[in-house]
């Protein structure tokens, strides 16, 4: 009986961050959609397999009256073999198309290849802190203030080793590298205060490499830029 309680505990301890499902930007919406979409597809497979399994366990179980009655060995059923080749292929295609589209759409690009549009912010990571520099030179540590409803262009660069930028409710994870500058876009963030963190183990201080992401109105963002 005790095992029944241990199982949900394990599920809670798997590190699955449910914050990603409470998405607060178009970018995070797409990511949450992909998670739920693939989960739904997997559930369909689990359901079909479970039903067949339970049915076969009962249908072909060993009983006294049918111990000599061994079912015929069927080989090469055209329809069945076609079904279990085409079925999984179809499932993979249904899974792959939106996954590839969204992944490519969201992937970070080298800054030399990026088109400059939206609100640019220079993000510098180092053990164990974040520095955010805005277009007018305004700089703040471990606090990222961005305007709502815009395309936020994060120019990510590291001063030492590889880190990873992640705000579960807004977007990420994106590697932050020392030898190149990557541009990652957060589309249409919504007003609120969200937790951000480094998502790549980078040393003893890794867990404290956190920051706050504040999405504010356009007006408040202007005020923020101008206050010194
Ligand atoms: Cu880090």
* Beta content: 25-35%
Largest sheet, in brief, is: 6 strands, mixed
**Uncertain spans:** none
The CATH class name of one domain reads Mainly Beta
Number of helices: 4
How far is it from the N-terminal to the C-terminal residue, by CA?
Answer: 61 Å
The whole-number mean of residue pLDDT values reads 91
Order of helices and strands: HHHEEEEEEEEEEEH
CATH homologous superfamily identity of one domain: Cupredoxins -  blue copper proteins
Characterization of this structure:
The chain has a domain at about 110-225: Cupredoxins -  blue copper proteins (Immunoglobulin-like), CATH 2.60.40.420. It has four helices and eleven strands, in the order H-H-H-E-E-E-E-E-E-E-E-E-E-E-H. The protein has helices spanning about 1-10, 25-60, 80-105, 220-225, and strands at about 110, 120-125, 130-135, 140, 145, 150-160, 165, 170-175, 180-185, 190-200, 210-215. The chain has a six-stranded mixed sheet with strand order 1-9-6-2-3-4, covered by helices on one side. The mean pLDDT is about 90. The structure holds copper (II) ion. This is Cytochrome c oxidase subunit 2. It is found in: Cell membrane; Membrane. Keywords: Copper, Electron transport, Membrane, Metal-binding, Respiratory chain, Signal, Translocase, Transmembrane, Transmembrane helix, Transport. Belongs to the cytochrome c oxidase subunit 2 family.
